[in-house]
Amino acid sequence: MRTIRDLEGQLAGKRLLMRVDFNLPLDKATGEISNDLRIRMALPTIRFAREQGARVILMSHLGRPKGKRDEKLSLKKVADRLGELLGAEVAFAPDCIGPQAASAVAGLGDGDVLMLENTRFHAGDEANAPEMSAALAALADLYVNDAFGTAHRAHASTAGVAGCLPSAAGFLIEKEVQYLSRATSNPDHPYVAVMGGAKVSDKIKVIRNLLGKVDCMLIGGAMAYTFLKQQGVGVGNSLVEEDRLDVAAELLAEAGDKILLPLDHVCARQIEPEAESATFDDEVPDGWIGLDIGPRTTALFEEKIRGAALVTWNGPLGYFEIEKFGAGTEAVARAMADCGATTIVGGGETAEAVEELGLQDRISHISTGGGASLEFLAGEELPGIAALQ
Ligand code: ADP
Ligand code: MG
After folding, report:
1. Which 8-state DSSP code applies to residue 95?
2. Which domains does the chain have, with CATH numbers?
3. Which is deepest, 65, 234, 270, 303, by most CB within 10 Å?
């Protein structure tokens, strides 16, 4: 994969179109930016391009405007915040293609930065329309993609435009690919994968792909109950995907003894902070919901993680949004932080859990792309990255 590093010395005076992921969370009441982490993460690539003398043209989507202008989803406020973080002026074009974009680009000097308006104000972006890709490409000499979170989508601003211009990956995508590749090709052993979260259905392909590579897969979270039910273990009122029992059976058969399921369960009668809770061995009794792994399971999972050379983790081990069902998730996060192995975390809620615990600096890599990292771990080609090769 070609990266922006490979373009060192070739960027001066060039119009560099860069796809970033500035799809920031906005406060529902005020519409203000509630977290600017995604801007801060893109700064190294933007700074490098400026230092190299490129004329930097940034584009992103924000929210789901469905192909129409929606002032609430304008990137203007994002451009202003970027300017503050960058400590430089950031120009703004009220459209991402056409004459307004072209004249804004024409006004750029070397090292200047321009933010284009939301690419999804045009239906052609998500449709990957060739006219849209061509119109974006017409603005620039080179294309850099640094939006890992949308790399699994073949859109005009990700895959389409990459086919129209000489292209390369930014530092964020480079780092994601470097780390996630360690989980999928020639992984270090012992390799332990921890899987959890709400649904088996979201992660079947990941489980299947990783089963062929890991020494051991620890499964907790709600998804464990579909596997346990398939094995004839009592699951009470726990979340079970009845239509995935067959797949669970296939995966268990493929896994041999690699999959470890919960041995005990922290349960409640309702998913509420005030609900009565209790820990049960082996089975979840009728009338109870399994909401976290119990202490025996936690000890087993910790021991496996401590012995690993590589650990990947996707999906909380319990309903961690309620503190008393968060112990399993916390224990796994701490075991990963302390184990000395290469540790990779993927998934929106999982990353959130690690950050809430303040452990983000003790994990080798926390992926920023929910869907994109799942597709990568499933062994699938990401169109936004494949287009750069
Ligand atoms: P990620 O975003 O990290 O990929 P998922 O979206 O798959 O994770 O799942 C996260 C959700 O799973 C969390 O909101 C958590 O509350 C829920 N969850 C985990 N364990 C359970 C459980 N035993 N019962 C119900 N929900 C659970
Ligand atoms: Mg999620």
Report:
1. S
2. 4-172 (3.40.50.1260), 179-377 (3.40.50.1260)
3. 65
